[in-house]
Amino acid sequence: MRRLLPYMLFGICCLLLSAAAHGIFLRELAANRFMAGPNDGLSQMLPFKNLLYHQYTAGEFFYSTLFGFGTGTYSELAYYFSTSIIFIITVAAVFLLESAGIIGSPDILFWAHAAAIINIIRLAAVLFIATFVFRYMKFRPVPAFLGACVYAFSNIYFRHATYWEFFADAYLWLLLLIFGAEKVFREKKGGWFMAAVAISMIDNFYFAYVNFLLIGIYILFRLFLPLEKSESPKKTAITKLLISGLIGAGISAVSFIPAVYAYLNNHRPPFSQDVNWLGFIDNILFTSAFIVLPAVFVLLVFALPLYREQKFRFFAFLVLFCILLHYSPKAASMFNGFSAPQYRWEYFMAFAAGGAVAAGFSNLSWLKLKHIAIAGGLALLSYALFALIDPNLGIERSILAVVIAVTLLLFFSYVWALHKKSRIGQSVVLLLLGTGIVASGYQFLLALMEQGRTVQFPLFLGVMGIALFTFMLFAQASRDAVYGKVAAVFIVLTLLFSVNGSEYVLLVIRGETQLVTKELITGPDYNDPEIFGLLDEIRKRETDPVYRIEWMEGIRNNTPIAMNYRGLSAYSSILNEQLLRFYLYDLEIDMARESVSRYATLGKRANLHSLLQGKYSILPLEDVNVPAGFEQVLASDNYAVYENRYPLPFVHGASAVYSEERLERQPILMREHALLMGVILKETKISSPLPPAPKKLSYAIENEKALLEDGILNVTGETGGVNLLLNEPVPSGSDLYVSFHLENQALDARFPLTVNSYRTSRKSNISVYKTFVDDLTIRVPADESIRIRMPKGTYNLTELEVFEEPYDVLRAAAMEKHPNQQVKWNGSRLEAQYLNETEAKYLAMPVPYEIGWTAEVNDKKVDVLEANYAFIAIPADIGLNKISLTYRPPHFYKSLLISLLFLIAGTLYTLKQKRL
To answer: Domain 695-810 has what CATH class?
Structure first.
């Protein structure tokens, strides 16, 4: 116990410092405001954590029917939390608390409250482990801890933890990878590196990729800039790293292979914009949202005698290389899989800066006054340069010049006072500087509290003052060791102060986490009590176990997860490719808002509602655009519930078989009819005659504050477009399907689009979230004309077609005699019975197609076919069909076997190394 006591005390110290680093968020938490972004935080992080918690504690680990039309969560949410080790530990801890009756059943509000606590504990672990890693590199305790603080208290941790919490786990696994690599270089032992690789690849495949690039850079630097004289030969180190890494990768197979399959089975348009090699994206000395290099590093990097020390040389060069990468959008693209540039890797620069600080702080005695004076002068000039070249700092050049001149005057005055050993001169400078720091700190805090005021100028003053004061402490520390401890305390305090200021400015105010309140999460803009009441009423009247409801709060596509009902929308960076293609290309379903990584609504198209079990639609009372065949059954103060009068059975017996290839050039409406009349198979040798062609309507074009000529629409009014005047009347019970190709010629302009009463929006051409799918099909109720409207601008508008949909095919399908069905679908297990009296060849179901589904009919294994573009079908028997579907993640059992084999190999490999 005595041996553990120092570690326990240090752990408590790390926890307290981590809490201090989260001071702003603890203050927010006390006011019921949470450490979660208003966009992805509320739309993805909190719903996914709540979904997976309840899945896991119910014994379901692989599939959810609440996520979109149904999703393999083990693989598709591996990018988020499904295999996150930190999240799984959190689930276990929360489940114990719930089982003991200490907390109630967790909901989204619980996870919002818990976010700051979880992040504090994780950052404390980062501090503890980073200190241990630096100690292993033979730094003394104080420098090692100081380096760990530089790593832990950097902006990017809080940015990740707030917006995309699972990103923050990479902070931990990078440390393990570096420690594992050091064990190979120093002791020729690969066990830790093997474990670190396995943990990284199990936890999150995306950040495994990022961390492997980073550890690759680290290893390359280590090979050419050794830290110790007695290290493994390069060839030996490379061999052990490769063997250990390959075994670790094999151990991770059970998680990594399904996750990578989901990533490859995703669909996202390629990033087509030019990516520059260099670009000044932010200011890493003052205002960067990713990393602000601390003054202690900026000062030390100019202290030339320190470069004689191997560790300092290694880490300083590593940081300088990272700075080059940081200012390269091309490198940011590489770290994001050669897609849109994303700056998510800078925690590695923070670690390297921490190593440089630990190394430099260990050797302050090497520095004489002239060295510190030169370093301080160059550091201050660097700050001045970064202030002058940054147009976003927003401070007048004349004011900058005055501040820089005064700073340099104080700097040289202190150097002169030190040289002359004038205590009076030193005291005067310290008094002036201290007054300036206190004044700028007060102005900075005042600006933080008064959100309308700019914080740039007091921030600039404060950073310059801290840099100058750090220089003075180092100058004293080079002569008196006591000042080294004072400098260490000062540096940690300035890091805590700076990071809390950044949290408030960049995250709470500009990032709008202040909007994420208890009132929001429990109120009408997120979990609307009025909608909850309507959902309860629907549940009371409904006996069908597999119906779906069309409702989404604003642009939050994961509303069904948040409100616990089966819906028609989903939002995730990784989604089923077949479903996305079903929306974007096969059926051209407009989602009311163009965006990648999402699908939503069914474009108010009744055929699709009936096919996909969309039985209810909740709409605002003022919305008159109701899907055909839906009638109002419930209402509240602001909303009405409409029920589908033409529901189709979950299991659809199909005798007619159509091929995707034959329907490829047919109208969208014909494809819908083919889905209603039979089944569409991706691969089939038989193909029934195509359904009758839908009625195509002729029209005359009328310009409205616009001119359409040769496919170019020039809108001259604030809003304008074309009217398609139909040449014959359309019965009031029919709908119109309007298809066209539309592109905005403006480079950067998103725009709203309306077609009669239907409203949608399109992204700008430079948005990273644009689908670049510009073939649209819009359904509107019957009318004498079709009015297409958009804002002023120039557009390509071609391929205009109008079809009538009288719903004869839907009514006929709904009126067919359907045998009674017994369907039970709970997660990864679906059971149903279907009496096949019409000798249907196939049974189609609105279950999204994924590799991983296996099927049995009457206890005989049958093939699972990709059908109806994105769903599944199975061969049917004559008579009663007892259907059993089971889902397991893609290649799950094969990857589990690989993991077990490599785990055995890794165990033997580690034991063999211990004997050596």
So the answer is: mainly beta
Q: Rounded to the nearest 10 degrees, what angle do helices 892-915 and 191-203 cross at?
A: 160
Contact assessment for residue 457 and residue 400, using Cβ atoms and an 8 Å cutoff: no
Which of 120, 104, 97, 94 has the alpha carbon at shortest distance from 35?
A: 120
For the beta sheet containing 860-862, the strands, ordered from the edge strand earlier in sequence to the opposite edge, are: 822-826, 829-836, 879-887, 853-857, 860-862
Q: Nearest CA to 177 among 239, 241, 88?
A: 241
180-190 residue pLDDT tens? 999 999 999 99
Domain coordinates of the chain in residue numbers?
5-367+478-513, 523-644, 652-693+829-887, 695-810
Whole-number pLDDT of residue 452: 43
Return phi, psi of residue 355, to 5°.
Answer: -65, -40
Spatial contact of 253 and 895, defined as CB atoms under 8 Å apart = yes
Contact 76, 68 (CB under 8 A): no
Tell me phi and psi for residue 534, to 5 degrees: -65, -40
d(CA 199, CA 206): 13
Cβ-based burial of 81 (10 A; exposed 0-12, middle 13-18, buried ≥19): buried
Identify residue 622 by its one-letter amino acid code: E
Tell me the CA distances in angstroms from 665 to 662, 668, 670, 777, 851, one per residue in order: 7, 9, 10, 14, 27
Please state, in angstroms and rounded to a whole number, the distance separating the CA atoms of residues 297 and 286.
14
Q: What is the DSSP string of 117-141?
A: HHHHHHHHHHHHHHHHHHHHTT--H
CA-to-CA distance for 720 and 750, rounded, in angstroms?
16
The kind and range of the H/E element at 496 are: helix 482-502
pLDDT in tens, 197-218: 999 999 999 999 999 999 999 9
pLDDT in tens, 221-278: 999 998 888 787 889 999 999 999 999 999 999 999 999 999 999 988 777 777 888 8
CB–CB of 754/587 below 8 Å? no
Whether the Cβ atoms of residue 810 and residue 843 lie closer than 8 Å to each other: no
| Cβ-based burial of 310 (10 A; exposed 0-12, middle 13-18, buried ≥19) | middle
What pairing do the DSSP bridges indicate for beta strands 614-620 and 548-550?
parallel
Q: Could you tell me which of 501, 508, 466, 499 has the C-alpha nearest to residue 155?
A: 499
* Contact present, 865 and 673 (Cβ < 8 Å): no
With 0-12 / 13-18 / 19 or more C-beta atoms within 10 angstroms meaning exposed / middle / buried, residue 12 is: exposed
Instruction: Report pTM.
Output: 0.92
DSSP β-bridge partners for residue 754: 759, 789
Alpha carbon separation from 829 to 257, 546, 634, 846 (Å, rounded): 22, 13, 32, 14
pLDDT at 916: 61
DSSP of 431-490: HHHHHHHHHHHHHHHHHHHSTTS--HHHHHHHHHHHHHHHHHHHHHHTT-THHHHHHHHH
Q: Which tokens hold the place of 667? A: 């109208």
Alpha helices (H) along 327-422: 329-335, 347-362, 369-389, 397-419
Hey, how many other C-beta atoms are within 10 angstroms of the C-beta on 560? 27
Q: Spell out the residues 6+ positions from residue 735 whose beta carbon is closer than 8 angstroms to its own.
A: 606, 628, 779, 780, 781, 782, 804, 805, 807
Share of the chain above pLDDT 70, in %: 93
CA distance 675 to 652: 10
What average pLDDT does the segment 684-713 reach?
Answer: 92
Find residue 842's DSSP bridge partners: 654, 875
Digit-coded pLDDT (tens) for 359-418: 998 888 887 878 888 888 888 888 888 888 888 777 766 666 777 777 776 676 766 666
Tokens of 516: 């994420």
Q: Which residues pair with 884 in a beta bridge?
A: 831, 856
Question: Each residue of 728-757: pLDDT tens digit?
Answer: 999 888 999 999 999 999 988 899 999 999
